[in-house]
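May I ask you to review the protein record following this short note?
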Amino acid sequence: MAKLPSIKRKPTSKAQSLRERAASAAKTGLPKRRVRKAASAAGKPFKRVLELGQRQYNITKPRSNGLGAVLTKPRAGFPRYFYNSWLELRQVSWPNRRTTWKLVFAVFAFATVFGLAIALVDFVLELIFKRIIL
């Protein structure tokens, strides 16, 4: 039997999964477009509310005499406190998942130790008062 000539094929590239693409993008330093797009879409309603809140309204027509001047003072639709609170929240650097779990376990450990200390003090004081009073 005659030998068939071998056909050289180009190696086919396997389609990358989303996780592999994200990992390669992180290595090359490319921005994560999908995350940015989702973040901007999630923030649009809040931006609209802030724009409406920064507008100022007059309850009555402006006058400069006496008590009427109090009512004619321009008012914001969104109280300044909430606007400033939102600006503060945007400056917060939130911890990652690992740090969050460390802090959660620290809180549980502190609460347990503190609860045991209070229980011990309560038990000792109960014994002392029973012996003195009874």
Notes: The CA atoms of residues 83 and 89 lie 10 Å apart.
